[in-house]
Design brief:
This protein is α+β, with helices and mostly antiparallel strands. Helix content is 41%, strand content 24%. It is built from 12 helices and 16 strands. Strands 2, 3, 4, 5, 6, 8, 11 and 12 form an 8-stranded mixed beta sheet that branches. It has a 4-stranded antiparallel beta sheet with strand order 14-15-13-16. Helix 2 crosses helix 4 and helix 3 crosses helix 4. The longest helix is centred in the C-terminal third of the chain and has 23 residues. The chain is globular, with a radius of gyration of 21 Å.
């Protein structure tokens, strides 16, 4: 069913969603029910939604999307059988440069509105990102953040009052349509903020549920394997973030792993069991304020990722990521790649009171070609 477009109210809604960093649990978390730890960061994607005016005539756009990553160009879309279709071949080229997640988020909210018998308004959607710098991506979960922010902004503009869990679930449905292998941990971090323990749902199950029952009923149904729990901020430790300057594709690395015979092997079972045990121990250490115990588990997580890399040859550890980790461990800290590796960012946990050690690590990173980023945890999720 194609949503019925209505005259939109002349108002504006703005929502900001933080980016994320994986602390532990990478690769194992893509399988439903396996735990990971993530932290939201104080760089955000902002989405502004306003109306396009009165009902447009035939041939005019139902939705207009613009992004600072596309320059000043706005891309027009029309509804067709419940999906958004780009108006014009030239606009389609622009849409392929990062608007797929925005469009999918709008479609998912639109389907919910239609199921509830509510009108789908004509929309003007503008995206601004601080998770990039002059077009360079840092690997801070921009796709997840823009999906969460778009869901929140469009839903609010359309008059929907949603809980944090409902916003996450809508974002999960929107992203799983595009990349069913993605764990959705970035969506959870962007939604709730702070430090979280996360277990991914079975994406194939929830997508099938949405196809059979609709989005609305799927939001309230049990999602096997899924769990999100807020964690306290680790005591006595400073989170340091270094960017390697080497962009990486999480989707490509995870897909590469899925294509290999390693999955289902004894080595795979060992990695998942060891990683799950490591994450569980790290969650316990955070909960009890055991900073040294947390550092031991982060070092262990690095070891397990290195073991995986050595066995499968994914290229998780680049030279710069290895040097980033070594510099932190040299002063008694712990460090590892954040996310799938292959570039992007690495994280370190260092003694918050040892300012000289922190300065030394940053200097060693800079000498190794790693850029220290002025990033701190974002304790809140979606903000206006």
């Amino acid at each position: 069913m194609t949503p019925q477009r209505t005259t939109t109210r002349q108002r504006t809604v703005v929502r900001h969603a933080p980016g994320k960093l994986f602390v532990a649990g990478e690769y194992a978390v893509v399988d439903p029910g396996n735990p990971a730890i993530l932290v939201a960061v104080d760089r955000h994607v902002g989405v502004t939604v306003s109306g396009t005016g009165d009902v447009a005539g035939p041939g005019e756009a139902d939705v207009v999307i613009s992004s600072d990553l596309l320059g000043a160009r706005a891309v027009p879309w029309r509804w067709h059988e419940g999906r958004l279709v780009v108006c014009g071949a030239d606009a389609a080229q622009q849409a392929g440069k990062g608007l797929a997640y925005v469009a999918s988020a709008i479609e998912t909210v639109g389907r919910l509105l239609t199921e509830r018998g509510l009108p789908v308004p004509a929309l003007s959607v503008s995206v601004g990102s601080r998770l990039h710098d002059n077009g360079r991506k840092y690997g801070l979960g921009s796709s997840g953040a823009v999906t969460v922010a778009t869901v929140a902004a469009v839903a609010s503009f359309s008059g929907l009052e949603l809980s944090a869990d409902e916003r996450y679930r809508l974002a999960m449905l929107a992203t799983a349509r595009l990349d069913p292998k993605g764990s959705g941990g970035d969506l959870a971090a962007s939604t709730w903020g702070g430090w979280i323990a996360y277990r991914a749902p079975d994406r194939a199950f929830v997508l099938d549920l949405a196809r059979r029952l609709g989005v609305d009923r799927t939001l309230g149904a049990p999602w096997p394997g899924h769990e999100v729990r807020r964690l306290p901020v680790p005591e006595g430790l400073s989170l340091e973030v270094g960017w390697t300057g080497e962009p990486a594709s999480t989707a490509s690395l995870v897909s590469d792993l899925h294509r290999r015979d390693w999955r289902g092997s004894a080595s795979h079972r060992w990695f998942v069991e060891a990683t799950n045990d490591c994450v569980s121990a790290a969650v316990t250490a955070i909960g009890t304020g055991d900073s040294q115990g947390l550092l031991r588990q982060i070092r262990r997580a690095r070891t397990e990722l290195a073991r995986l890399d050595g066995e499968v040859g994914l290229g998780i550890f680049t030279t710069r990521l290895t040097r980033l980790c070594d510099a932190a461990e040299a002063v008694g800290g712990a460090a590892k790649p954040s996310g799938a590796g292959g570039g992007d960012c690495g994280i370190a946990l260092l003694d918050a009171e040892a300012s000289r050690d922190i300065s030394q690590v940053r200097q060693r990173w800079a000498a190794a070609g790693v850029l220290p980023l002025p990033i701190r945890p974002a304790l809140e999720g979606i903000e206006e």
